[in-house]
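Quick check before the chapter quiz. The format below is the same one you will see on the exam, so make sure you can read both the input and the output lines.
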Amino acid sequence: MLPTTQTLSAFKGTSQRLFVAPSPAEKPFVAHSTIEINSPRYFYTCAVGGAMACGLTHYALTPVDMLKCRMQVSKGLYKGIFDGFKQVSAKEGLKGLYLGGAPTLLGYSMQGMGKYGFYEYFKYLYASLAGEETAAKYKTTLFLSASASAEFIADILLCPMEALKVKMQTSTTPFATSFLGGIRKINAAEGINGFYKGLAPLWLRQIPYTMVKFATFEKTVETIYKHLLSKPKDQYSKTEQLGVTFGAGYFAGIFCAIVSHPADTLVSKLNNVAKAEGESTGALAVRILKDLGFTGVWAGLGPRIFMIGTLTALQWFIYDSFKVQTGLPTTGGAAAPKKE
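Here is the expected output.
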């Protein structure tokens, strides 16, 4: 599912500046920071950047996410995403479009903190364990394993807020009048299981998604600098380097949406369908998948491609912009300095 170098290189003949707007007034950006690469402070900084990147972008796209969840849970509710916007705006206004915004902001900020912070940590850890030569030879494997490990932790942080968000967005009657009211209602009805019954499907959705997101992004950035542009990375300005970040992020987002969509549909249904007496979460998941069928698990894919493509591009852009402001290099395209 990951793009090959040949796929990306096919664009070379179109323009060497395909993703980058020229900015002759800007000087080349060479990273220089008091933060030592691969130090604890570096990992904390990346975690803060990740929290900003994921929390802000997911909150901004709450209306698209809300409509996507409703379309997954109730087929035929809207003719399409634009019809959904029209109906919700007319009936509920801006407040209706941002239903579930609070758990979205909190949950995805926590997830972003774990996703990006632990990704950088595991990338360093696994490279150290493998050795420099092996890590360089199997870079894609390194990206995949580090991102999978990071997302495993990040989803534990996200899951309670994801459960509340989905219930608020997909209930046919208002689920709760407030954020805290929603938490109390889930806890009273289902206890701790109510917050974590969607964890396994969340891992099935998010771990492949994040593996594709990080590995495709890193590979795309590397390919752009190697094959589509004419100079080394450090000879481009901040704006140009961040332009590469945004373009590679959007490209990665399209792959992410497709790979993770069936599990995303399952998560939406799991948080909105009651278990039969004595039924396990696994049995409920199997029952839902049988009811949905092959075409049902792909419901809402169009809005999700738009959402995830935009989301992923903006996340990488915000994350790298934050790193640049601290004097750190943008992600990918060149080997990071070693920690002595």
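If your answer matched, good. The first helix runs from residue 5 to 9.
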